[in-house]
Prior knowledge:
single chain; about 425 residues; mainly alpha; 22 helices; about 0% strand
Amino acid sequence: xxxxxxxxxxxxxxxxxxxxxxxxxxxxxxxxxxxxxxxxxxxxxxxxxxxxxxxxxxxxxxxxxxxxxxxxxxxxxxxxxxxxxxxxxxxxxxxxxxxxxxxxxxxxxxxxxxxxxxxxxxxxxxxxxxxxxxxxxxxxxxxxxxxxxxxxxxxxxxxxxxxxxxxxxxxxxxxxxxxxxxxxxxxxxxxxxxxxxxxxxxxxxxxxxxxxxxxxxxxxxxxxxxxxxxxxxxxxxxxxxxxxxxxxxxxxxxxxxxxxxxxxxxxxxxxxxxxxxxxxxxxxxxxxxxxxxxxxxxxxxxxxxxxxxxxxxxxxxxxxxxxxxxxxxxxxxxxxxxxxxxxxxxxxxxxxxxxxxxxxxxxxxxxxxxxxxxxxxxxxxxxxxxxxxxxxxxxxxxxxxxxxxxxxxxxxxxxxxxxxxxxxxxxxxxxxxx
Length: 434
């Protein structure tokens, strides 16, 4: 029996079944507590759903603000196209479409257990692999966001976890087809969540270094050639979208146009650590009118300049906003974690908050442990929580923004937990006198 329990604990099939069950039961409970007509409408009344509605109606990739405003590059196309396909099959603003979109999110998040399991196996063995997958299975953000948020974060979490596993696997692969597949995977990820481009140079640089150090100038040249091939394929995947944007806007928009507005929303005289969305064009009539009058590119460029000007002239307030957004990202959405923890009477809120704080501290400890061990795979794992969130420290902080890197956060937490377990086990072992 003692042998069976560890085997069951490390079973990826069992983890997948439990992860899927948690999410399906949570979705059923959420659907039972909310009116079906509201669920079929409200989750889609944001930019991703609005663009998908426009696509499903035959109006093209346009109109992110619930009214006809013309073509947009607000988002990259993968997730809105997925939602549009769901609308075409199950109808726009229907409960059936909501269930289909939530089911897709649940599938993406559940499948993310697979690459994170095999990445964990490479880094710390079967125990770390199973621990990371179990943590991901019960992580509250990765349960709630599947049916409460119709955005690209769930799909991005699957693709980002797969990128980590593929990066570790490519360390020992010299086959050109593997590097081509890696480039295609990056192209799909960039067309889903461009913010993850922030970790691309670090991962490719690590791969080039690991292959180049195997010996001689020939190995270094081959390493650079493989990395260049993967990078070139990833960029080629983005070229059709960039060309479309240039033809529509007569401006160079490589991936998406929203950076200027995001920066301004988080950095202006009325900005708060908790984003209330009052100034967003989707809610603010004056801002929407300005957006329509100026056009998307001119509007977002103007907001970018205003944000930079405000940040340069208010350094003390900017430091406070960035610090609070840092806390919000790692505490599950609140910039005041200690005060909210003490004030809240909700056990569920406390559980979510404490899980997020534990994950943040565990991830930091996992990074330290891997670097102290001089583990060569420390860098590709650590860059996700170290580099990626800066885009949101400087703009806006919401729990869904962190979800794409949360599989890696769970893996680092599992590394820290395994190290702690080994430490206490060694202390508990009886000392035998010589």
